[in-house]
Every structure is written in structure tokens, then in C-alpha cells.
Design goal:
The structure is a single chain. Helix content is about 25%, strand content about 25%. The longest helix has 17 residues. It is globular, with a radius of gyration of 25 Å. With about 450 residues, it is α+β, with helices and mostly antiparallel strands. The strands form four sheets. The protein has an eight-stranded antiparallel sheet, with helices on both faces. It has an eight-stranded antiparallel barrel with strand order 13-14-15-16-17-18-19-20. A hairpin with a 7-residue loop joins strand 7 and strand 8. The chain has two domains: about 325 residues, Beta-lactamase (3-Layer(aba) Sandwich), CATH 3.40.710.10; about 80 residues.
Length: about 450
């Protein structure tokens, strides 16, 4: 199953072997996905009497959340909900119904991290109506929108929201709309052979203890699913943009946008809409981590490079924390991606005439013409507000990113109007309608 060279494959497998041996894992699998396909798979340790394979199931824990989030976004795209809707509009009867769907998806609702039950990951679940009855103001730990605070309970509520709007269960909706269309037929709610048993490894001895596994019931959308390296590689391809029609590229990009970050001197991790975000070693990654008693799993993707990495292990704790980054580094070192060939592209003469220097007051900017009639406006020298723009049917351009995301650019013969800011060919061109006027330059 390797599409990488022999030298690369050995370097990747050795890094995996070091992790399995030094971190004392019963079994460990990993894979790299490139250009929508599995480029490398490796497995170490034993599941029963055999080495793990791409078909071996492991529990993926909170990676389940990212899959549930895709169904929520499909509902949004169909017009069945708005992300700013309060939960009570679609899920009446809960005392936390004022929280919005977007807040729940981005973990900014201020809702408690764990349900008001026994340790839910290690005990049989309770029905969803019982969970909803237990939620009250005491379970709100922060003002909604104030800060990022991870909440398993929030995704339990989102799963019930999906079930009610689809007239079925969250799991059946996920199966029909996401898993089956993506060919993830071995992603299931309960384990099926061959699957790994979840273990805790003793901290001071080389012995293991089997961990419990139950149906989480109401908390299922927060971490119920089991999957395989093969299926999780397909999920990584999806997150890189090979969506198979399940979700639009624009909606997937929206899910990756930071909505909350873990506070610190510089943020390295955060959350979008159902997706975890990470800035690591110069990469902007999106995906999700997962843990349940006896299992650890992670899938990270770098859509800009169309590459993803994942691992699945049957241990409660003990990972080094650098495995995924190291595997990506090895791939980049041994087999860096070739840049796409540059080719000339036909240009509309009117758009070509717009390119070049423009000035925001005295500050020079460069307007460039991109493929598909898109525009890029960037400050000379790189410091300042930069955005790309996409053409609209009414002859304007819409900001795609940066400071001007969502704002409108209008083109006139002698100036650009970018949401009231006037850009001119010369600094403060007196012939252009610069608000406040423009006189002569003098010493």
C-alpha cells in the first residue's frame, strides 16, 4: 500500500517503530495520505496474534465530532438551520437552549466539558432525554462566546439536533450522508472483528489492563465511533478537499476558519466549526484528535499541501506528542512535493489594465490578476492588509480572505473603492474622489 519510495517508507516505519517501542504501546498504526490517496501505511505491535492492518478497527473517540459537524453543515447548506440559531429553535425543552449552534460547534458556548453523570467514558450511557433534563444553568461554566472551552456535552446536543431535523438518529444520518458516500463502510458504532482491545499500560511495569467499552448512548456523538486506518485515510482525504460531493469546498473551508483559540503568548491550537486547528512547524493543520479509555487516535491535514497524516493506537495514554509532525517532516525531507508547472493564462484586457500599483493614501499596493478572474491586492513590502477577491455577477468583487473578507471592491476608471477606502494610481490623486480632499504635496 506504499506509494512512497523504499527509503522514505523505511524512515517512516522506523519513526513509527520508535514510538511503539519507547512509548510501550500494545499496537500502533499510522498512514500518510497524499493527493487523496494513501501514500504509506505502517503498523507495529500485535492485535491478538497478528500485526495490525489497514482493516484493523480502533476506537477514534472525538474524531466522531468532526464527522457529526459535517452533517450539521449539510443541514445549514440546505437551509434547514442557521448557525446563529439558538439551540431551542430546533431542540426545544433544554435549559441551555439560548446557546447557538455555532457556539456549540466551536466550543465557545461556555458549556461544561463533561456531562452531569458518572465518568461517561467508562460507564454505560444514558438516554438523551435524561441528559437534557440534567442540564441547567449550573452546567454553564463561562459566558457564551467569552472563550474557548471544550465541551463533549455540546456535541451530544448537536447529535440530537441532527437526529431531530433528519427524522432519524444521528448515527443513521451520518451513515447515509457521510460515511457511505465516502466509502467508510468499516466505521461503526461498536467494534467488529478484527479490532484492537483497549488497554491501559502500567506506568511502572510492562503489563496491561483491559479498559471498559460501552455504548455511550446520548454522548455517542462526542466519541462513540470505531474506524480503521483505511477509513480514516479516506476521512483525511475528505478534509484535504477530496469531498466526493458530500460537502462543498467553500463550506469545508468555513469549517477550518478559527472561531476560538487556546489562550497563550502565541496561539498554536484552536477550533473551527467541528474541526481542531493547529499551527505546527510552519504548517496550518486541521483535523481532530480522539481518545477513549484504551485508545488514542489523531488525523491532521494540510490542505495547502494536499497531505494528511493519522495514527491509531490501543493505549489510554503515553504518546510522545510529536509522531504526526515527525512523519510529515520525513515525507517532506525525502519526497518534497514538486511545484505545479507555471503556464500562461489568457487575461481579460480590461482586467489586465487594472494590474500594477495602487495607493491607499501614501501607501503603495500591488493589484495582481489571478486565475478565474480573481484579484489579489497586497501592500508593497508585505506589511499591511492583503486580501484576494472573487468576481460577482454585478461587476463587483467580493473579499475572500484577510481584512477585507466579505467586503466589496468596486472598480472605477480612476480609482478603486474598497468598502469606502479609495485606492488611487498616485498617492492621494486629486482627480479621484478621495474623501476629505487632496491638495498639493509640499516640503
Amino acid at each position: 500500500m506504499s506509494q512512497v519510495g523504499q527509503t522514505t517508507a523505511r524512515a517512516l516505519l522506523r519513526r513509527l517503530a520508535v514510538e511503539q517501542a519507547e512509548c510501550r504501546m500494545p499496537s500502533l498504526t499510522a498512514a500518510i495520505v497524499r493527493d487523496g490517496r494513501t501514500a504509506w501505511f505502517g503498523g507495529r505491535g500485535r492485535v491478538g496474534d497478528h500485526e495490525p492492518t489497514p482493516a484493523t478497527q480502533y476506537r477514534i473517540g472525538s474524531i466522531t465530532k468532526s464527522m457529526v459537524a459535517v452533517v450539521v453543515m449539510r443541514l445549514r447548506d440546505e437551509g434547514l438551520l442557521d448557525l446563529n440559531d439558538p439551540l431551542e429553535r430546533h431542540l426545544p425543552g433544554t435549559k441551555v437552549g439560548h446557546l447557538t449552534i455555532a457556539q456549540l460547534m466551536s466550543h465557545t458556548a461556555g458549556l461544561t466539558a463533561e456531562p452531569p453523570t458518572e465518568w461517561w467514558e467508562r460507564t454505560p450511557g444514558i438516554p438523551v432525554h435524561d441528559l437534557i433534563d440534567r442540564l441547567d444553568d449550573k452546567e454553564l461554566k463561562h459566558r457564551p462566546g467569552r472563550r474557548f472551552h471544550y465541551s463533549n456535552v455540546g456535541f451530544a446536543l448537536l447529535g440530537e439536533l441532527v437526529g431531530r431535523l433528519r427524522g432519524t438518529t444521528w448515527l443513521k444520518a451520518l451513515r447515509a450522508e457521510v460515511l457511505d458516500p465516502l466509502g467508510m463502510h468499516d466505521t461503526t458504532a461498536r467494534p467488529r472483528p478484527p479490532h484492537a482491545t483497549g488497554y491501559a499500560v502500567h506506568p511502572f511495569a510492562d503489563v496491561v489492563l483491559a479498559e471498559p467499552e460501552h455504548d455511550a448512548d446520548a454522548m455517542g456523538p462526542a466519541g462513540q465511533l470505531w474506524s480503521t486506518p483505511h477509513d480514516l485515510a479516506r476521512w483525511a482525504a475528505f478534509l484535504c478537499g477530496h469531498t466526493g460531493g458530500v460537502l462543498s469546498q467553500d463550506t469545508l473551508a468555513e469549517m477550518r476558519e478559527p472561531a476560538g483559540v487556546d489562550d497563550g503568548d502565541t496561539w498554536t491550537s484552536g477550533f473551527g466549526l467541528g474541526l481542531q486547528l493547529s499551527r505546527s512547524r510552519g504548517r496550518r493543520l486541521s483535523g481532530h484528535t480522539g481518545s477513549m479509555p484504551g485508545f488514542l487516535a489523531t488525523v491532521w491535514t494540510d490542505p495547502a499541501d494536499d497531505v494528511g497524516v493519522l495514527f491509531m493506537a490501543n493505549t489510554t495514554t503515553g504518546m510522545s506528542g510529536t509522531l504526526t509532525d515527525d512523519l510529515l517532516d520525513i515525507l517532506h525531507e525525502f519526497e518534497p512535493r514538486m511545484p505545479d508547472e507555471w503556464r500562461p493564462v489568457p487575461a481579460d484586457p480590461e482586467l489586465l489594465a487594472l494590474t500594477g500599483l495602487w495607493h491607499w493614501g501614501p501607501k503603495p499596493y500591488v493589484l495582481r490578476l489571478l486565475p478565474e478572474r480573481r484579484l489579489s491586492l497586497e501592500p508593497v513590502g508585505g506589511a499591511g492588509r492583503a486580501s484576494r477577491f472573487v468576481p460577482q455577477d454585478d461587476g463587483t468583487w467580493l473579499g475572500l480572505d484577510g481584512y477585507y473578507a466579505g467586503e466589496t471592491l468596486r472598480v472605477a476608471p480612476d480609482h478603486l473603492n474598497l468598502n469606502t477606502f479609495i485606492f488611487t494610481r498616485e498617492p492621494y490623486d486629486p482627480g479621484a474622489p478621495v474623501p476629505g480632499g487632496a491638495g498639493d504635496w509640499h516640503a
